[in-house]
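Sequence of Twin-arginine translocation pathway signal (Roseovarius phycicola).
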Amino acid sequence: MSTQTKSLRTLTRRELLKGTTALGAFVLGTSYIAGADGAWAAELEALKPESFATLVQMARDIYPHDRVADEFYVAAVKGYDTADNAEGIEAGIAALNAAANDMKGTDYAAVGWERDRVDVLRSMEDDPFFQRIRGGLVTGLYNQKAVWPIFGYEGESFSKGGYINRGFDDISWIG
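Predicted 3D structure, token representation.
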């Protein structure tokens, strides 16, 4: 097993279904990936499992939030797992791994320290692949309504009369 695939576990359809309850949803398809810590799992369509795991790690390193669970980062990058995107994403991951190998001697996902992974990302920040992922994460991560309470955002306020009469000026940390 390569050092990159140590951080993830692929599941067969049988293993996935065996682990669900009788009331669980039926899942179609043949490629699944789960984080090594069991914090997330995803059904894959086009990307290699190790490439998808690298995207999740990249997303967490670009916009790090300790209080945001991996499942939200998975949802943020899931849109790249399509046949139309696969070739470009796989090429971008290959370039990211090449940069990590040049700088740290291993693939990106196997670099142990966040600071070292960020150094690799900084070396690629002008690359169109990096810009595509970073830009997509702005909406992919922060437009998830389930993430909003983590940041104290209550959502839009127009339908509730706006912010002026709803605590606009009661934020104590702005001071």
